[in-house]
Each structure stands twice: as C-alpha cells, then as structure tokens.
C-alpha cells in the first residue's frame, strides 16, 4: 500500500488516506482512496498487491456458504495451516474462488491484530511473509450430512445449496414414501406397456423419455409449472406427471384387457354398443396418444395438479352422475360422492326386490317403498351442503354436550356470532328434514300404492309434462325478464318494478311485492309437486322397460341412479329443468322417435348434454364479445399485433371452445389479447387454495410493532371490515333473496358484481341447493385505479337517454331503448339484473380532524370535554370507593390538598386549558374547582350511592389528579408541542388507540390501580371526540350538565368508540352495532392526515350486475398463467387495462393475491333460507316439534276466542249454569251489593234463550267500571260480552269446553311462558298494586307492578314481554281471580311488571 494510507475501518470512514475496497457489477475488485492528492477515481485492486502475494493468489481457494444452516463437513485428512477468514462488512469472503480474497482478508486480519507496538505497514508485511512461507493448502472437500436413518447419516459430496439446485427437498416422510412408491409404479407400468408391444420404432424411444421425465420429476420438479396455481415452490405439482402416467397406463391395460374378453354382454345406448371391442380398442389407442403427447400437454398446462384433478373429477361425477351440488373442497367432493353412493345403495335393494317380479314389477309394494324412500332421500340430499364441517360440529355438540360446554366456558369476550348462527341453521334444518322426510315417504308411498300412475297412463304423464313446461317458462323466463332492468334488452325500464325502484335513498328493508310472492309459490309448487309427480310417473312407466333392456341387476341400478338424479335436480335447481324437459320431449317424439331409450334415460342424458352446450354457448358469447372489432381495447402493443393474426385461426378457436366446454376448462385470452388458448380443467370453485383475507389489527401484531410503526393504517386494510360485514349481511339474506328472484336466474358458478357509492365487490356463487347457497365475496378497493373507475362508470350509467340509431338520432319509442343502445347492450359480457337491491350495511362519513381542531378555541373545547369525560367515568366507576380510600393514592395526592398548589408542567397551555391559572402559570386546584366542581357534584348526585363531593373532598382530589395526568399524557404523546396542530393530532391519536406513556414521577401513583387508566382516562379521550363532534351541531346544548350527562350515558349505550385496530371494533361491526366512531391515521401515497370516521348502520342500495361466468373464469385463468408461469410482473400490463365490454380490470383485480389485489376475500360462506325473515313470512320457516305444538296451541286459542265471540253474539252454544251463577255472585260480592238471581238458560227448538236480571247486570257493570283505574275506564266500559263469557273463563260440560279449560285455566307451561306485545296502553292497570284488589303471585312483583314504583319509566306501545301470571274473571282460585270482567295478564318487561287486559296485547306465541 502507498504511504500515508490505511484500510478504512468502516463504510463511513472518510479520514485522509482511508482505502475502501468494493466490487463492481462485473465482479472486478476496485479500490478508492480518500486523499487530497487522489485521482478521484477507483483503480483495480490488483495494482496495490505486492509481488510476493501474487504467487499465493494464483492458488485455487474454495469456500462454503457462510449462511448455510445445514451440517457441512470439511474433509481434509492432512494438516494444513489455513487462514482465518473473518466476517467483515461487505466481506469478500462470501465470494467463491476470488483471487483478491486473500489480500483483503490479510488486511482485515492485520487491523484486527493491530497492537500498540507495531505499525500497520510492518504488520501487513509480516503477514505477507508468513503466507509466503506456508505450503499451498490442499483442496477442501465439502460434504452434506444426509440423515438416512435417525441413527445413521451418510456423506454426500455436495454442499446444501448445490444439493438443493440438483434435487428437491422432501419435507415429510409421507412425501418420501409417495415419491419412491410412484417411481416404482412408473417403472412397472412402463415395462408392462413395453412388453405388451403397444409402441413401435420411434415411439418406443419417446415412451422411454416420458418414463424418465416422470421419474425425474420426483427428484427435481419443474418450477414454476404451467399448471401451478401458486407462486414459488409447489410441492404438489411434482407428483402430477407420475400420477397421470400411472392413470393412463392403467386405462390402457384395462381397456386392452376388456377388449379381448368375449364373455362381456354388449349393451347398446342410442344404437351405440357401449362394450363393443372395437370401441374399447379405439378408447385404448386414444389414451396411448395422450401418453405420447405428455411433453406437449405439460408444457401447455392442459392437466391440473393431481389434487385439483381429483376434486374436479369427483365434482363431475357428483353433479352429472348423481345430480348433486358443486363442491367446495376435495374433502367435500369425496364425502358427497360417498354419500350419493350410499343413498343409491340403500334404495337399490327395494328396487331390485320389486323389479325382479315380472308380474307386478313397478306396482309391487316394494317399488312403492322404493319411491317413498327415493323422494325423501333426494329431498334431504338437496338440502345438504357439500361441506360437512358444520354438520359434524352440530352432531358432536349433540353427542358430546359436556365437552362442548367446557369449551364454551373458555371463550373470550370477543366472539364471532357467525359459527353459532350456522350451527343453529343446520340444526333447525336437520330437525325439519326429519319431520318432512317422514311425511314425504309416507305420502309418496300412499300415492304410488294407489296405482294412480299405472291406471292413468299415459294421460297423467302428458298432463304433468305440459304443466311442468308451462310453469317453467312462466317462472324462469317470462317473470325474470319482466323484472330485469332492461327486459329482453329492448325496454328501458323493468315491467315489474320494486317498491324501492323510484326512491333516491333507501331507508328501510325491501318490501315484498306481489310478483315476488307469486314467483316463490310457483317455484315451490314446481319444485315440490310438479316435478316429483312427473318423475314418479316416468319411473313407474319406464322401470319395466329398463329391466327388459338391461336385466334385473343393471336395470335396477339404472332406475335407482336416474331417479335419484332427476329428483335431486328437481329439488335443488329447477332453473333449466323446463328447457331440458321441452327439448327432450320434442327431440325424442318428433325428430328421432325411434332412438328413445325411455324418457327416464333420455332426460338423464340430455341434462348432461345441456350443461355442456350451455357452457359452450357462454364461451362463444365471451369470445365474440371480447374480440368484436368495434369495441376492442388494446392494452398493449402486443394486443394490436395479435388482433389481425387471430382472424385466420377462428375455426380453431371454435374447436377449442367446444373441447374446453366438454371438459369444463376455461378459455383464456393469452396475455389479454384476442388469441385464446385452453387452460386446464377446474372445478366450479376455480381457485385451488382456500385464500381469505386476514385483517391486521392489535390481536395479531406485537405490541411494539403497532405502537411504533402502526401497521394496518392503510385505507385498504381498515376498509376491508366493511366487506366482511357485507359478507355477513349476504349470509343472512342472500339465499332468501335468490329464492325471491331479486338477482334473477342464478345457478352454481355464476358471478355477480355488486356496486354502490363506494363498495364494489364480486360475488361468486359456488354452490346452489334447496334452501342454501354457498358464495365467496371479493371486495375491490374503495379508491380504485383509473381503469376500475371507467368500468364502474360503465355499469352505473343509464342507457335510456341514448337516442341514436346508426349515424343519426331519430329518438326511440316511449319506454324503449334506441337502436344504438339495444345493439350495444347485446355486445356486453354482463347485464344489469337489479338497480335497487337493498342490503343492510354501514354508511361511512369521514371528516378531517385537522379542520375541526385548527384553531385553539376548538382544541380548548375538546380538552374541556376530555376533562368532563374523565370525571364522568371516575364518578360512575364501581371502584370509586376503593380508589378514594386507598392510602397509597391519598399519600401521592396529598400535595394537591394545598390551596396554593399548582402543577406548572410546560405541557399546560392557557390557549387550550380552560382552567389554566395565569397567576401561578399552571393548573391549580382552585382554578380546577372553579371550572369543574359543579360538573363533579352533578355526576355525584346522579350516582346511586351517595359520595362526598365537596370542594375539599377526596373525590375532587382524585378527579384533579386524574385530569392533570390525562392532560400530561396527551402532552407527552404530542412531544410537548400541543401548540402545533400536527403534534396535537399525533398525541390525540396515540391516546385514542391506548398508547399512554407515564413519564412524569408525579403521575406514578396511577400504577396503584391501572384500571384508572383503562376505565377512566382511555374512554375519556374517546368520548371527548364524540362530544366535540356534537358540539358543531348544537354548540350550547352541552352547557347544561343534565343534558351532557344524559348524552354521555346515551353514547355509552348506543355507540362504540374504538380504534380501528382494536379487535373490539371488528366485533362491534360484525355484531351489527348501530353506530361506531374512530379516529383514523392515514398514511397513503405520501399523505399524512387524520380522519374522524363515523359509521351508521342503515340499508344500502346496490346495483346487481350478472357477468358471464366463462368471461370471469377465462380472465382469471389468463392472469394466473401470465403471472405465475410467464412471470409478467409489470403492474401496467395490458391484460389488466380496462375493457368495458368484459369488465376486465374489475375481474382481474379480484383474483387471489398476489395475482390480483382485492382488499378483502371472504371464506366460502353458506347462506340458508331460514334466516331470511321475508321468505319465512311467505312459505314459513323450518318445521320442528316445538313449532308444530305452538301452532296447534295458537290455532286452538284463536278457535276458542272465535267460538266465544260467536256464542255471546247470539250464536248457539252450551253454557254452564253454575258458572254463570258463580260469576254473578262474584261480581255482586265484589261490588258489595246483594247477590243477583241466577241466570238460567233453556233450549227450545235448537235455540238458546238467556233469562237474567237486567238490573243485576247493570249494577255489576257499573260496579266494575267504578273499580277500574281512571286510565282504563273507557276500555272497561266498552268491553264486549265475549270476554265475560269466553270459553277460556268457563268450564262447560262439553268435551271441547273441557279441553279449553284444561289449556286456559290450569295454565300449561306454554301458556305461562307466552310472549306478548303491548298494542293499547290504555288498558294498563297501573294502580292495582296499591290496595288488595288482586292477589299477586309474589310480593316482589307487586312492589314493581305500578306507576308508583315505575317513576320515569312507563309502558309504551310496541314493548314486548313474557306473561308470568294470569287473572281470570270468576275463577275459583282467589290467587287467579280477576277483579274485573276481563282477563288480566301480568307481563314482565325489563325489570318491571305490567298488569294489562288481555285485549290490550298481541299474542306472539310461546317463548322459545
């Protein structure tokens, strides 16, 4: 090295002569010297190396990775003196075989070994000389210690990184076992096919290459694979090639074996021999061709990974073979197929037992049993979701109630209500199915055994066909078109409008319209009556024919399988049943009448063919809409290049569409262009992994993290809670709304966009069943990109104002679309199905906190409310007496008792502190009392237990100490810069989220009980913000202490004020709290602002847009291929640019992260119909024994009241003379007059004549009226005779009256636990607790049963309560005898008891 130079001690060493070494982008080592005489440029480091060192550097050195965590063994048997290579910043020790390594290391070692007796230069020379004397070291071998067994390891001559570059690392033992087993199977199957001479010449070599590739993929897989759905290393994709190879080889061997067997019976279907050897050999050759095309197939990604393929295959079997639902996971698909197989097996025995009897055949009693069980089982399966996790939870709770109870006891305060709600829904559906299935089985058995389907053939089948077709056309075509926003894309408005259609802002839930009720009942009759009868008729008619064609064994299986699918389809999804029905009938009755294989098999096969044709039609619509020349949107130069080149390949495009429709595979635009390629087959769920958004809040981050860096403060993370709440709202009402037809025609796999003012989300309906719908929501950003905004404008703009037609504007007919508008609407991949879909959600209002606290006066008001809120919470605290009497607190606050004491902390400021003492330059106790003593005394006066609140009391001292502490904490959080608005807002937000930092020794007394901070100061900060908000609407209202106290109390009950990162905030939103308030700190795009967020629960209006599901699947598949396989990370790539005709940007941005960028993706959520109150009001809820019992009791009570009114109004009836006599005597005794003569009743010619004393009746009525309370005299004087002689109040000699008396008089549990609602407060007896006119059940009830003890509370109309006692007129038991001529109910409402006449309440039924 040159004179006056030294090696730099660190990267920041800029002293004179400091030499820095660094490596450029080409791997060359350079040096730079800080010196006045330096050239100012870097020079190669080799120039500074002395000559003796060059010879040493020529030796080859090898180093291992210093960051390796695996065991590395250095195998060097001969001793060699190696240099210690230290780990220095930017050390070149990390570089392999660098010739300058030794030089830099020697310099570093020289600096580390430098002492006071040697100079740097002499030490460096000494190191070089020592190195010259050492012999060249031998080459070091690196070995990786591979654990072959837990007790045995072997050495592999690779280091860890080199070994990972060569081979994949299996993480579990199962992966190792699977890899070895699959490699053996590949070898076995490959040898079997080679020895069988299936391949010749070149194809033998190609097949061997395929075998080797399948085996090698188990050692080193292709990453990323073209069919991989995730970024990074995919462990499952490594098994795809060998699994598919084994499956194809098995098929080849099986088909070859069956084609050579002559013992198989040949079965024909539509003239095609299903087991013909020639057909089997053709299938074998087709599979062999697929085997030889494996390299091309896997490069193009035409086969999914093995678990996706298994789920896809099982779902296809479940939906097309068994008529079931789509599935939500691999486990759900497997369980669904097993459940369907068990169901077919259960009914097969009855079917076989009946059909083997060729005489009775389908009229055998076992066939009737078969039909009953088949319909009941199909009904139950149609109401079961594919996911059995919730069902297992319900069953385990029933079976293991004790364990479940112990788990419930350990739950925290923050509880998600959704799981319990789902369990209750599933439990109620199971109870209902147990009742309904039993009734269905018996009813179908009775109908079928009556031979109605045999005697009335073929008329009954033809009539049912006509009815089913007509009802289907009206229900699923005409009515949905009438309700669309643009019916038939010709009309400008819906022909059937909802009540909310013309409302600018929806203020209530959607009103049920008459056409919605008609739609529900039409679907109910179609699903539960028409189609079951039709398919039972066809089963009875076609079963003998199928047995003759296929034999008793296979024929019974075909009948069982076809019957189960047809009935499940009729119960689950009747959307396209009428189309399949009409097409099947005309095709096999007029086009090809001789090709029919019975209506049962015809309908079965046509349902499969229709689903494929419908997918093909949707794909063609998507392709034609996407590549239409007049609306193509080029997102990049490649799009413009690909557009003309795609035209010559249009025929191939249609072939691809047909093939992809057959395999249910997406047809995706390559890089978003006009060139389409087929992707691999996917299930309806589409996405392979169960991705859902996990919100960042204080419950899943470290305390230091969210105090210092404030994670989750971006708008997207905080706004995701609104989509989560929207998901819960949809879970509550979606299934019922779909049954009501508010989203139009909906099938499994359909995709919808919900758009409102700020919420835009995509809803993917995954599973549809009988009374259930499983969906997934994908919420988009509130402030989306430019492309997203353009597409939102396209779906929200109206088209009725367009008056163009071609190049002119002639206008349009009234309520019709113009020519241009009608043409453009037909070239869209989406359509508006509803413009006023009402859903419960939250309206969001945000105000800038800076504008509300800009001036000092506004900050002073906030501090004043802050102090008053602290005082309020201190006085209201149940631990107040403990704090006041605490000796440690008293000792710490003793200094505050001095009249001249003042806290002169610099935090306090006369500009913002209302009680600032200018004389003492601080907050004194005197100034504090002058400002807040009256408020303290008012709060103490409202306290239930009296407390001393005088000027010198301990309460005032405690309030003073806490208020000073709270302001000092605010000042500390504001960095003692409260005069600065930014600092003040920063400190306010820190306290709002609970970041209190006690730094002053004066405030350490609060550590005696931290509840003072948590229960008094923290809520005081939050409440002050709400009071400050209210100040702008009514500035002087809170000057009244009573109004302020009531306002804080009301906010405590009705409002949740919390930081958005607090788990309590999420819990409050998900539990539908009416109002919420938060202070949000937004750090986004360089902006740093504070917002006051206010949420109010209300009804929101959404536009519902139905998107072509093949458009969504194709665009999703294209994005997955582009980002995962092609690795296009360009954020402005052409495939995500806006395309209004396909909503390309909104769809692509809704993909799973990191492919898309939704701010919220919900888990798969199932909505049940029994949670929708409007649907239940039309068709009723789920059945249960309790509901049936309650309905019978209600019906009997209604009948009892009606009969009583009829008898008293002159109708015929039977009455007991003794009861009439007792009633008259009791009334006269009560009034203090002489007993009246008994009333007699005689019968003449079938008529009843009542003989009684008019004067006695008048005296009784007058006496009764005089005894009634003043508030109820009018109702008593106008009482009808029906209540006086109601059967509920008498015991007659007839059996009906006896039963009535048993139910009403003796008071069963259902009668006592009756739920009622007050409808007339004028019939409340609010003074009967004074005196002894009634005998009360308990003295405690009487003490809370009148206005003398109610004080400020009073019963109002609409209040609901439970009946705890009943007084009846003329009752024999004095404890149950009414003092007036009408029944009186004692209703428990809140903590009070309300005596009210029975006619003043509405019966709500038995309390469950």
Automatic annotation (TrEMBL):
Main location as per UniProt: membrane
Its annotated compartments are: Membrane
Segments for region (Disordered): 104-124, 1208-1289
Give the transmembrane ranges: 177-196, 202-219, 239-259, 279-303, 337-355, 361-381, 434-456, 462-479
Superkingdom per UniProt? Eukaryota
Which controlled-vocabulary keywords does the entry list?
Membrane, Transmembrane, Transmembrane helix
Under InterPro entries, the record lists: Pecanex (IPR039797), Pecanex_C (IPR007735)
* Residue ranges, compositional bias (Polar residues): 1214-1228, 1257-1267
Q: In this protein, which residues make up the domain named Pecanex C-terminal?
A: 948-1174
Q: How does it sit in the membrane?
A: Multi-pass membrane protein
Q: Which ranges are annotated Low complexity under compositional bias?
A: 1229-1246, 1269-1288
Task: Output a single Gene Ontology CC term carried by this record.
Answer: membrane
Q: What family is this?
A: Belongs to the pecanex family.
* Protein name, as recorded: Pecanex-like protein
User: What is the name of the gene encoding this protein?
Assistant: LOC109487972
């Amino acid at each position: 090295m040159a004179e006056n130079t030294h090696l730099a001690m660190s990267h920041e060493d800029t002293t004179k002569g400091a030499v820095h070494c660094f490596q450029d982008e080409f791997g060359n080592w350079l040096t730079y010297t800080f010196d006045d005489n330096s050239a100012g440029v870097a020079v190669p480091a080799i120039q500074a190396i002395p000559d003796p060192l060059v010879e040493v550097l020529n030796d080859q050195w090898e180093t291992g990775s210093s960051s390796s965590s695996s065991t590395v063994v250095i195998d060097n048997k001969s001793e060699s003196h190696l240099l210690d290579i230290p780990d220095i910043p930017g050390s070149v020790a990390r570089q392999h075989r660098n010739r300058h390594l030794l030089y830099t290391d020697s310099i570093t070692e020289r600096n580390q070994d430098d002492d006071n007796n040697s100079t740097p230069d002499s030490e460096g020379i000494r190191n070089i000389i020592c190195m010259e004397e050492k012999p060249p070291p031998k080459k070091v071998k690196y070995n990786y210690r591979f654990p072959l067994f837990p007790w045995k390891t072997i050495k592999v001559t690779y280091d860890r990184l080199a070994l990972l570059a060569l081979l994949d690392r299996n993480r579990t033992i199962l992966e190792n076992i699977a890899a070895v087993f699959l490699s053996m199977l590949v070898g076995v199957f490959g040898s079997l096919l080679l020895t069988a001479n299936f391949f010749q010449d070149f194809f033998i070599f190609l097949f061997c290459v395929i075998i080797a590739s399948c085996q090698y993929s188990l050692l080193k897989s292709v990453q990323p694979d073209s069919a991989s759905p995730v970024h990074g290393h995919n462990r499952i994709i490594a098994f795809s090639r060998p699994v598919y190879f084994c499956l194809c080889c098995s098929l080849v061997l099986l088909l070859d074996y069956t084609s050579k067997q002559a013992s198989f019976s040949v079965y024909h279907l539509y003239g095609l021999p299903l087991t013909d050897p020639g057909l089997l050999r053709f299938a074998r050759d087709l599979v062999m061709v697929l085997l030889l095309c494996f390299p091309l197939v896997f490069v193009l990604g035409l086969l999914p990974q093995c678990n996706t393929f298994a789920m896809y295959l099982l779902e296809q079997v479940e939906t097309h073979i068994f008529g079931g639902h789509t599935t939500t996971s691999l486990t759900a698909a497997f369980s669904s197929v097993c459940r369907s197989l068990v169901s077919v097996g259960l009914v097969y025995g009855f079917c076989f037992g009946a059909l083997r009897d060729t005489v009775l055949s389908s009229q055998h009693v076992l066939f009737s049993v078969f039909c009953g069980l088949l319909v009941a089982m199909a009904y139950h399966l149609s109401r079961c979701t594919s996911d059995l996790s919730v069902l297992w939870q319900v069953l385990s709770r029933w079976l293991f109630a004790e364990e479940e109870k112990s788990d419930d006891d350990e739950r925290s305060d923050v509880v998600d209500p959704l799981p319990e709600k789902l369990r209750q829904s599933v439990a109620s559906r199971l109870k209902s199915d147990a009742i309904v299935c039993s009734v269905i089985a018996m009813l179908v058995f009775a109908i079928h055994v009556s031979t109605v389907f045999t005697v009335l053939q073929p008329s009954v089948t033809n009539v049912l066909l006509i009815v089913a077709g007509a009802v289907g056309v009206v229900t699923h075509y005409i009515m949905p078109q009438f309700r669309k926003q643009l019916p038939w894309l010709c009309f400008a408005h819906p022909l059937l409008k909802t009540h909310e259609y013309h409302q600018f802002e929806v203020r209530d839930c959607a009103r049920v319209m008459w056409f919605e009720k008609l739609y529900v009942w039409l679907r109910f009759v179609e699903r539960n009556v028409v189609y079951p009868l039709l398919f039972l008729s066809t089963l009875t008619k076609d079963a003998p024919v199928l047995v003759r064609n296929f034999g008793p064994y296979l024929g019974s299986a075909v009948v069982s399988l076809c019957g189960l699918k047809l009935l499940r389809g009729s119960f689950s999804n009747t959307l396209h049943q009428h189309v399949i029905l009409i097409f099947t009938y005309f095709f096999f009755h007029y086009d090809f009448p001789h090709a029919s294989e019975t209506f049962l098999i015809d309908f079965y096969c046509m349902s499969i063919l229709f689903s494929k044709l419908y997918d093909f039609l949707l794909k063609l619509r998507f392709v034609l809409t996407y590549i239409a020349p007049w609306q193509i949107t080029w997102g990049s130069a490649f799009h413009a290049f690909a557009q003309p080149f795609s035209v010559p390949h249009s025929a191939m495009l249609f072939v691809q569409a047909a093939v992809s429709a057959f395999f249910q595979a997406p047809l995706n635009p390559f890089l978003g262009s006009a060139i389409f390629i087929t992707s691999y087959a996917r299930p309806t769920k589409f996405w392979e992994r169960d991705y859902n958004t996990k919100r960042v809040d204080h419950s899943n981050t470290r305390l230091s993290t969210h105090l210092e860096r404030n994670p989750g403060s971006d708008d997207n993370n905080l706004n995701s809670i609104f989509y989560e709440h929207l998901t819960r709202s949809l879970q509550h009402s979606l299934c019922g709304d779909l049954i009501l037809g508010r989203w139009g025609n909906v099938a499994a796999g359909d995709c919808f966009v919900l758009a409102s003012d700020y919420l835009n989300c995509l809803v993917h309906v995954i599973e549809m069943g009988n009374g259930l719908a499983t969906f997934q929501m994908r919420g988009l950003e509130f402030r989306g990109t430019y492309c997203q905004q353009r597409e939102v404008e396209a779906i929200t703009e109206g088209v009725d104002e367009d008056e163009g037609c071609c190049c002119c504007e002639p206008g349009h007919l009234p309520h019709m679309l113009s020519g241009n508008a009608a043409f453009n609407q037909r070239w869209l991949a989406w359509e508006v199905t509803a413009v006023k879909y009402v859903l419960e959600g939250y309206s969001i209002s945000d105000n800038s906190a800076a504008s509300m606290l800009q001036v000092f006066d506004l900050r002073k008001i906030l501090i004043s409310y802050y102090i008053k809120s602290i005082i309020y919470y201190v006085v209201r605290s149940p631990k107040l007496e403990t704090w006041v009497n605490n000796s440690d607190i008293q000792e710490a606050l003793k200094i505050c008792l001095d009249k001249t004491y003042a806290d002169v902390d610099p935090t306090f400021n006369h500009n913002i502190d209302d009680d600032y003492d200018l004389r003492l330059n601080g907050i004194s106790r005197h100034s504090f009392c002058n400002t807040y003593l009256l408020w303290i005394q008012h709060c103490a006066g409202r306290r239930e237990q009296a407390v001393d609140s005088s000027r010198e009391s301990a309460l005032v001292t405690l309030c003073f100490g806490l208020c000073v502490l709270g302001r000092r904490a605010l000042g500390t959080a504001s960095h003692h810069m409260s005069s600065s608005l930014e600092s003040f807002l920063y400190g306010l937000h820190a306290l709002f989220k609970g970041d209190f930092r006690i730094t002053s020794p004066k405030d350490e007394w609060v550590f005696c009980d931290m509840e003072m901070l948590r229960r008094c100061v923290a809520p005081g900060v939050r409440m002050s913000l709400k009071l400050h908000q209210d100040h702008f609407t009514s500035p002087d209202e809170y000057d009244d202490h009573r109004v302020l106290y009531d306002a804080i109390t009301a906010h405590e009950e009705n409002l949740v004020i919390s930081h958005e990162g607090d788990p309590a905030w999420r819990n409050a939103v998900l539990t539908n709290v009416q109002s919420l308030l938060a202070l949000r700190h937004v750090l986004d795009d360089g902006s740093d602002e504070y917002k006051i967020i206010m949420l109010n629960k209300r009804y929101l209006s959404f536009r519902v847009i139905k998107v072509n599901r093949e458009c969504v699947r194709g665009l999703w598949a294209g994005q997955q291929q582009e980002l995962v396989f092609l690795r296009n990370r360009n954020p402005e790539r052409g495939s995500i640019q806006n395309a209004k005709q396909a909503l390309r940007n909104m769809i692509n941005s809704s993909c799973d992260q990191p492919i898309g960028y939704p701010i919220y993706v919900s888990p798969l959520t199932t909505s049940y119909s029994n949670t929708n109150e409007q649907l239940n009001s039309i068709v009723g809820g789920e059945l249960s024994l309790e509901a049936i019992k309650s309905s019978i009791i209600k019906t009997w009570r209604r009948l009892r009241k009606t009969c009583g009114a009829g008898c008293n109004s002159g109708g015929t009836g039977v009455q007991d003379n003794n009861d009439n006599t007792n009633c008259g005597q009791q009334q006269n005794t009560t009034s203090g007059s002489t007993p009246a003569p008994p009333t007699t009743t005689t019968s003449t010619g079938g008529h009843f004549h009542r003989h009684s004393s008019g004067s006695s009746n008048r005296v009784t009525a007058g006496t009764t009226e005089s005894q009634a309370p003043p508030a109820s005299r009018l109702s008593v004087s106008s009482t009808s005779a029906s209540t006086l002689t109601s059967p509920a109040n008498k015991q007659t000699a007839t059996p009906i009256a006896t039963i009535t008396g048993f139910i009403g008089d003796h008071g069963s549990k259902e009668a006592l636990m009756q739920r009622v609602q007050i409808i007339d407060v004028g019939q409340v007896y609010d003074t009967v607790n004074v005196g002894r006119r009634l005998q009360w059940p308990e003295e405690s009830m009487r003490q809370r049963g009148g206005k003398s003890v109610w004080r400020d509370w009073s019963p109002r109309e609409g209040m609901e309560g439970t009946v705890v006692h009943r007084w009846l007129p003329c009752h024999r038991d004095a404890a149950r005898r009414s003092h007036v001529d009408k029944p009186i109910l004692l209703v428990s409402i809140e903590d009070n008891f309300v005596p009210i006449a029975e006619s003043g309440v509405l019966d709500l039924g038995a309390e469950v």
